Structure formats: C-alpha cells, structure tokens
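Hi all, a correction to my earlier message: I attached the wrong file for Nuclear transport factor 2 family protein. Here's the right sequence:
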Amino acid sequence: MKKLLLLGLAIILFTNCNQQEKRYTQQSPEIEIVKKAIENYNNKKYDITLYADTSKTLFNSSKALMSPSETIAYHKTNDAIYSSRGFTNEDPEYEMVVTDDGETWVNCWLNWKGTLAANNKEFDIPIHLTYRFIDGKIVREVGFWDASAIALELQAIEAEKTASEN
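and the right structure:
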C-alpha cells in the first residue's frame, strides 16, 4: 500500500512538472495581434481596437507616454513628411515571453523603410518594438530606433529652404 501511494505521488509530481506554462514562444495569439498592428501601420489604418483604453505608448522615450489616440496623431503627423513608409518583410522576428511576474510581452525586431517627400531620400532603419498584453489587449507599447539620420536630413532641408528665402 505504501509503495502504491508513493508511486501515485511520483506520477502526480511528474505530470505537474511536465504541464509547465510556455514562457517563450514564436507562435501565439498575441504575436498575431502585433502582426495585425504592424499591418495596420503599413496600410495607414489606425485601429485602436487592438489596444486597451488605458494603453500607454512610449517611442524613443522613457517619459513621454501617449494614449492610443495620441499615438495615432503621432503617426499621422509623421506620415505627412514621407511619400512612402512602412515595415518591410525582411527577416522580421517575433517572440512572446511570460516574465517571472506573469506579464505577457511580445518583442519584435523589424526593418522600416521610408522615403522623404521633400527630396526622395530613402532611409532603412532597424526598429525594436515590445508590447505588453493583458486579456488579449495591448496595454503598453514601447519602441526604440535611431532616427538621427532622418532628423539631420530634415534639418538640412529646412536650412536649405531658409537660405533660399534670404
């Protein structure tokens, strides 16, 4: 009887250890939501239904939080300076992780290409985006990229414009 009880406990312990929640994956519903958000951005279809009402976005900042509607305004303002822009399909990487605290995050590494409307100069920039999810909705979006080449080009365009007016 004792051996039967120990065998039963060993089976329960072994079964519970093997039913561990996935902490890392490259296929999940959350990744599909991020891919939809990227597709929407590329199509200039700004759909905030993927985001929780309380979602906050940070782009190249640790303090300038934007709501979903402010993020759309940010994108629309930036869209005005490009004749074309969007994420490419060149080796995108997506991963979902569940942190030790139980938070669900999707990370992605993408290439972005854009052409300035003012002078047709093209830019190709690697971008890292990460999204936190709660109940299937994005509650936080954080993006980092080096926009210095674009900023310098816009400054040069503005300087040239000012010089020609004088």
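Sorry for the mix-up. The chain has one domain: 21-165.
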